[in-house]
């Protein structure tokens, strides 16, 4: 059967294919091959620039032509590499042969042919490829999308900073807050984790078959190979790892995945809370005329965007967690279990961006329902037991908590019941009058200013 979005096994390449497009140039087979080409060319360029005996030095123009092979590498070029691989049955060796073919007609570069992949094991190339992919994914896709999602929540926080809302702890009526302040909490949490994620260093190694520069040193013992290899790794924008086995141990990938998992967990928490607020009627969803909420109940406008986000975040985190736990473990100097696992890095990120887009789409449909917010607050006089007993404490009235507990716990409390209680208290008249004038919708503490504080975040 011909492969298409309709026949793809994964919804990331099928139903949701368009939502994951930004990751395809990075984590696809084409992306992996292109990154290998860039790494090989960077290594070759570094060798030519270090005055190593027998390695020809080429001028700036020739080095620019060398770099252009990677810059202009496209899907058609990747297909040429795959054709070579069909003969070599080795993916990294196919890159070496491809590059030899590309420079053979260039008089200046042809002399470099035998130094392509010099002293390298395949893992020298591959570990750098995956770190490059993670670097690109973070800078080009994940951080811009996350910033946009955070901004969507920030806009809600500011718009509804003063929209009083009955809080619910343990699902029961609790001290009032504002709808905006509850959104601001997620802005703050996500901003903190976003900053952590942005700072994670991505490491790379280029030190040979078991990490000792064995082949490098036997060929050119006089060369500072750790220094040369560090230069090449840092040219790629990565941090040099000087002490490894055959493989870079992937601890940085685990750290990267765990940071992203924390972000996803916070987004999932927000999706569930917003789903609940929609269910309570605190949020309305703008209906789209052409959409259908139910195949049999025409009135429904379901919170499907937040449900879609939650489902995809679960798949994303399961994949990211597996890789974070698997990749840093390798038998002795290396086994091959990381190889096939690494090819699935894009899966976790694909479901992450699918989820984030669904969540953001859902945010765009939300409108507060002031009537429902006000109604719930107006019917929750029991929440004022907290300020009443706190004022009683200030004025030295004995057992204030116990007296309010006896009055309110598990009982329907009306304004009249609470006011009768307040009038009997031995309090200064001004204080008593202040309590009698307090309404649930006024009992917001610093919620409004806390919500507004996220305007300066970032």
UniProtKB/TrEMBL annotation:
<comment type="pathway">
    <text>Purine metabolism; IMP biosynthesis via de novo pathway; 5-amino-1-(5-phospho-D-ribosyl)imidazole-4-carboxamide from 5-amino-1-(5-phospho-D-ribosyl)imidazole-4-carboxylate: step 2/2.</text>
</comment>
<comment type="pathway">
    <text>Purine metabolism; AMP biosynthesis via de novo pathway; AMP from IMP: step 2/2.</text>
</comment>
<feature type="domain" description="Fumarate lyase N-terminal">
    <location>
        <begin position="14"/>
        <end position="311"/>
    </location>
</feature>
<keyword id="KW-0456">Lyase</keyword>
<comment type="similarity">
    <text>Belongs to the lyase 1 family. Adenylosuccinate lyase subfamily.</text>
</comment>
<dbReference type="GO" id="GO:0005829">
    <property type="term" value="C:cytosol"/>
</dbReference>
<keyword id="KW-0658">Purine biosynthesis</keyword>
<dbReference type="InterPro" id="IPR024083">
    <property type="entry name" value="Fumarase/histidase_N"/>
</dbReference>
<dbReference type="InterPro" id="IPR008948">
    <property type="entry name" value="L-Aspartase-like"/>
</dbReference>
<protein>
    <recommendedName>
        <fullName>Adenylosuccinate lyase</fullName>
        <ecNumber>4.3.2.2</ecNumber>
    </recommendedName>
</protein>
<dbReference type="GO" id="GO:0004018">
    <property type="term" value="F:N6-(1,2-dicarboxyethyl)AMP AMP-lyase (fumarate-forming) activity"/>
</dbReference>
<comment type="function">
    <text>Catalyzes two reactions in de novo purine nucleotide biosynthesis. Catalyzes the breakdown of 5-aminoimidazole- (N-succinylocarboxamide) ribotide (SAICAR or 2-[5-amino-1-(5-phospho-beta-D-ribosyl)imidazole-4-carboxamido]succinate) to 5-aminoimidazole-4-carboxamide ribotide (AICAR or 5-amino-1-(5-phospho-beta-D-ribosyl)imidazole-4-carboxamide) and fumarate, and of adenylosuccinate (ADS or N(6)-(1,2-dicarboxyethyl)-AMP) to adenosine monophosphate (AMP) and fumarate.</text>
</comment>
<dbReference type="Pfam" id="PF00206">
    <property type="entry name" value="Lyase_1"/>
</dbReference>
<dbReference type="InterPro" id="IPR047136">
    <property type="entry name" value="PurB_bact"/>
</dbReference>
<dbReference type="InterPro" id="IPR022761">
    <property type="entry name" value="Fumarate_lyase_N"/>
</dbReference>
<feature type="domain" description="Adenylosuccinate lyase PurB C-terminal">
    <location>
        <begin position="330"/>
        <end position="444"/>
    </location>
</feature>
<dbReference type="GO" id="GO:0006188">
    <property type="term" value="P:IMP biosynthetic process"/>
</dbReference>
<dbReference type="InterPro" id="IPR000362">
    <property type="entry name" value="Fumarate_lyase_fam"/>
</dbReference>
<dbReference type="InterPro" id="IPR004769">
    <property type="entry name" value="Pur_lyase"/>
</dbReference>
<dbReference type="InterPro" id="IPR013539">
    <property type="entry name" value="PurB_C"/>
</dbReference>
<dbReference type="Pfam" id="PF08328">
    <property type="entry name" value="ASL_C"/>
</dbReference>
<dbReference type="InterPro" id="IPR020557">
    <property type="entry name" value="Fumarate_lyase_CS"/>
</dbReference>
């Amino acid at each position: 059967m011909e492969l298409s979005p309709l026949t793809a096994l994964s919804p990331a390449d099928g139903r949701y294919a368009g939502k994951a497009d930004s990751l395809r140039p990075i984590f696809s087979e084409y992306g992996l091959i292109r990154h290998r080409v860039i790494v090989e060319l960077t290594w070759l360029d570094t060798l030519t620039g270090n005055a190593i005996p027998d390695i020809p030095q080429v001028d700036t123009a020739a080095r620019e032509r060398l770099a252009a092979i990677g810059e202009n590498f496209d899907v058609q070029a990747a297909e040429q590499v795959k054709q070579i691989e069909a003969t070599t049955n080795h993916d990294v060796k196919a890159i070496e042969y491809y590059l030899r073919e590309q420079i053979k007609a260039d008089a200046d570069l042809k002399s470099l042919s035998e130094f392509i992949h010099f002293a390298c094991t395949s893992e020298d190339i591959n570990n750098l490829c995956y770190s490059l992919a993670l670097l690109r994914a973070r800078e080009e896709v994940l951080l811009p999308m996350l910033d946009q999602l955070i901004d969507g929540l920030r806009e809600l926080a500011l718009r509804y900073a003063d929209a009083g809302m009955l809080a619910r702890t343990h699902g029961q009526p609790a001290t009032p807050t504002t709808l905006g302040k509850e959104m601001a909490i997620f802005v703050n949490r996500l901003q903190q984790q976003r900053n952590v994620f942005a700072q994670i260093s991505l490491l790379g190694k280029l030190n040979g078959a078991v990490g000792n520069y064995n082949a490098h040193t036997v060929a050119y013992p006089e060369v500072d190979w750790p220094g040369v290899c560090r230069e090449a790794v840092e040219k790629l924008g990565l941090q040099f790892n000087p002490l490894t086995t055959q493989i870079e141990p992937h601890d940085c990938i685990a750290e990267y995945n765990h940071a992203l998992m924390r972000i996803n967990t916070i987004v999932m928490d927000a999706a569930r809370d917003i789903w609940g607020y929609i269910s309570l009627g605190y949020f309305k969803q703008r209906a789209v005329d052409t959409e259908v909420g139910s195949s049999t109940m025409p009135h429904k406008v379901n919170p499907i965007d937040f449900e879609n986000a939650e489902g995809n975040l679960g798949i994303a985190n399961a994949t990211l967690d597996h890789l974070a736990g698997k990749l840093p473990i390798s038998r002795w100097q290396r086994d091959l279990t990381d190889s096939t696992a690494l090819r699935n890095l894009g899966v976790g990120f694909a479901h992450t961006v699918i989820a984030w887009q669904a969540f953001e789409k859902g945010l765009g449909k939300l409108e507060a329902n002031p009537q429902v917010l006000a109604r719930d607050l107006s019917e929750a006089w029991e929440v004022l037991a907290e300020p009443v007993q706190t004022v009683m404490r200030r004025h030295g009235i004995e057992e204030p908590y116990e007296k309010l507990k006896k009055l309110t716990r598990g009982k329907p409390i009306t304004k009249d019941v609470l006011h009768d209680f307040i009038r009997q208290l031995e309090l200064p008249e001004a204080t008593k009058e202040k309590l009698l004038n307090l309404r649930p919708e006024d009992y917001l503490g610093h919620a409004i200013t806390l919500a507004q504080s996220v305007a300066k975040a970032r």
